[in-house]
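FORM 7B: Structural annotation worksheet

SECTION A. Query
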Amino acid sequence: MSAYDDALVEVLFNDADKDKSGFLELPEFKALLATYSGRKELAMSDAEVDEALNGLDANADGKLSKDEFAALIKKLFHK
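SECTION B. Predicted structure
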């Protein structure tokens, strides 16, 4: 990833990590999706958000690390 991508990941991740745990847990991930969808509430159910998080959670610990989040950003913005 480029320096711009690294900076983007850093800003987005740190903003979403409200409890500053170094991970995005389900409520934080859901809030992140809602924020960047431009809606107050997601059209996705909690189960669908959980399924999306689990699909990104490479080590299956139930939360996203910054590296796992960076992989999502890379997929979203690069082919």
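SECTION C. Observations
The radius of gyration is 12 Å. Strands lie at 23-24, 64-65.

SECTION D. Sign-off
Analyst initials: ____
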